[in-house]
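Exam revision sheet. Question 4 asks you to relate a sequence to its structure. Input first:
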Amino acid sequence: MVNRIRLSGATPTILLDNLSDLHGWLDKCVTDRGFTIGSLHYTFGDDEDIQVLNNQLLNHNYPTDIITLNHSRTSRLKVDLYLGVDVIRDNASSFNIDFVDELCRVMIHGLLHCMGEDDNDDEARARMRLAEDNCLLSRPKSLTVSSI
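Answer key, structure tokens:
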């Protein structure tokens, strides 16, 4: 399982300290939706890193919480996800939630896009939020605020 899910860049310590739980949780969220993991690569960066990527890949000149590149051709996921740790931290503060909760939500949000969920209108956003919430329910205790 370790080779199918990779983390790089400025990876938050809670993820590095709980790799086995993280891998199991992501795998469960994916398989529960009828998909399998071919490869997931999460790259974590700061505002500058993610803004450069956002500009290069999407012509958006601002930092963002996640950029998802879906290379999948079948139900076997092959995905590169770039996460803006500073934006995630700022959003958590704005939403008055813990960083770990927002981090996990964003990590799963990108995967859900690759499994057919969208958030381009109110109805789709509600479905996406429900799917995120369902995945977060199965999150191991080690990846929750109470574990810190």
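Marking note for examiners. Helices lie at 13-16, 19-31, 47-58, 85-95, 99-114, 122-137.
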